[in-house]
Amino acid sequence: MAQLSESVTNLITQLGKLPGIGRKSAERLAYHILRVHKSEAVSLADAIRDVRENVRYCDRCFNLAEGELCEICNDPKRDQQVLCIVEQPRDLMSLEQAAVFNGLYHVLLGRIAPLEGIGP
Predict the structure, then answer these.
(1) Picking from 92-96, 97-101, 112-116, which range would have the lowest pLDDT averaged per residue?
(2) pLDDT digits (tens, 9 = 90+) for 28-74
(3) Over 60: is that where the pLDDT of 88 sits?
(4) Max CA pair span of the chain
């Protein structure tokens, strides 16, 4: 059986570390990256680098932000009197996409489950 190159093996290993990505999915993604135009693969790599270098947690609500405050905390049109507590930034994104909430948020960055011994 033919051996994969070290670079391809490393890519598959790294992709396999992503949540929900098993070995077969990692292989499919790796082969997709090898098939696309080089500029598309480099754009993906640049996007990963950019998010790691530029994105942080908002100083006020712990949402994802590229500055001290996220866009929601910076928005003067938001209802400052209403606060929605969510577990993760992805939960906030779901509410924002549904456009059902116009207040502010607090992102816990984890779960509080006192019955399971998980506190703040």
Answers:
(1) 112-116
(2) 999 999 999 999 999 999 999 999 999 999 999 999 999 999 999 99
(3) yes
(4) 65
DSSP bridge pairs for 86 = 107
Task: Look up residue 34 and give its two tokens.
Answer: 């090898």
Helix and strand counts by DSSP (H, E) for the chain: 5, 4
- What is the distance between the terminal CA atoms of the chain, rounded to a whole angstrom? 52
Q: Is 59 in contact with 53 (CB distance < 8 Å)?
A: no
b/e for 41-58, b at 16 or more Cβ within 10 A? eeeeeeeeeeeeeeeeeb
Grouping H, G, I as helix, E, B as strand and the rest as coil, residue 110 is coil
Query: What is the SS3 assignment for 120?
Result: coil
**Structure-block tokens of residue 1:** 């059986």
Does 113 score more than 60 pLDDT?
Answer: yes
Side-chain-facing half-sphere of 52: CA atoms under 13 Å:
6
Domains and CATH numbers, the chain: 6-54 (1.10.8.420), 67-116 (no CATH)
